[in-house]
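haha ok so turns out i had the wrong file open the whole time. this is the CORRECT one, sorry everyone. sequence first:
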Amino acid sequence: MPADDTASRGPATTGGEHARRGRRRRLISALVGFMVLIPGLVAMAPGTASAAYPDNPAQPVPFGSAGFFGPAGGLTLNAPAVGMAGTATGNGYWIVASDGGIFNYGDAGFFGSAGAIPLNKPIVGIAATPDGGGYWLVASDGGIFSYGDAVFHGSAGSLPLNKPIVGMAPTPDGGGYWLVASDGGIFSYGDATFYGSTGSISLNQPVVGMAAAPGGTGYWLVASDGGIFNYGTAPFLGSMGGTPLNAKIVGMAAGTGGYWMAAADGGIFNFGASFLGSMGGQPNANPIRAITATHDGNGYWLLPTSPPPLPPTLNPGASGPAVAMLQQQLYALGYWVDTTGGSFDDSTEQAVWALQKAANLQRDGVVGPSTWAALEAGVVPQPRTTSGYVIEVNLANDLVMFVNNGHLEWTLNTSTGGGYTYTSGGVTSVAITPTGLFHTYRVVDGLDISPLGQLWRPRYFTGGYAIHGDSSVPPTPVSHGCVRVSNEAIDWIWANNLDPIGTAVFVY
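then structure:
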């Protein structure tokens, strides 16, 4: 068969969210009859099975030993609430907004804020000192802002980060803290010891938070799919990795005997620690942004925040911050783009097509509500191989996947055999891509001209079939049988040696 033409990323165990159960009808009937005499019984304590929990931006929802100290009805803020921390007594807490504004309630004192400071990057978290006399704020660039008796031990603000910081955790004595990035990279300061990280591991989904183990001799990291990574003395007690979730995990907190994870819909998943209630199962207009444990480890707060504004519909050729955000999110999920500078170029359109294919959406290259939702949900294709480094070509969806020991690292749009008949050299053939397990055996670093056209930097895996660059790679199968990728993508494959001689290529 002649060559083609160019005519134009934790172990998973079973865990479950505890659903809140409704009261039995006879109990409700008894209460209804009793309410006339004792109206106060209508008010239900947080954690009661059938309680309807308030759903207001920046109004913490308490469970277990956690108390409520305000603000009733929530807050209207200049920037969304992104984190909270409780006092040592459990009788107060601080809420922080992404602009560094601080809102204190109960016995939590106000020690200062970054609300009036022009920030390089938004605030993403807060941690309190052990005595409640101060707090640290952390920004996504690793910048640290310390107030009250919180001592500044260092920051990552001047470091070139591979991925943004998403959270922090203090040591028990307040003499240090850890910062965690979305790739699981750990930055330790003061007396915080480095026990390990996922910074060099290919993750299925990004890390979204961390919690310190008792005694500060270890820590857990949690990914948005519920995967748990434990280091030091922090024990692995279970995870939601590999289990379908209704909503992404947004954070975790350590409690007595274990830890909790919180999902954006208010669902709680407990491992070791007791289940104390959740907001899962009720309609929530405001997504949960954070979970914070009480100092005694027997309770937690969930922090709702205002939903992000609907992003604009984006078309190829668009530019600006929304495009940059799109590119950053695509890249974080492994849909390769050659820039995150905010210009909707060909590589961005290729990545959007790949996402739309994985999500079974219309392959139009337009980023509208459905595509944004798929991006937010972290939709990625599922590879078939579980060991070794393999390039998978999924003909059903026309996707190329770079898979390392079962972990999907990168995904590209491709166009494979179109299924039509053609004649070359007097021979009539059908344009199909052969299936099976092959290996890259020959490469040409440049333009390779065949009877059917021109192949840019082809990497042949069987006969005349190759993964090669092309100036036209639509989201449909149109090739004579080769695996087309964009010219930018094949240049990237060459530059990063992603398909060396001998690489397994699994076509199915």
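The first strand starts at residue 61 and ends at 64.
again sry for the mixup
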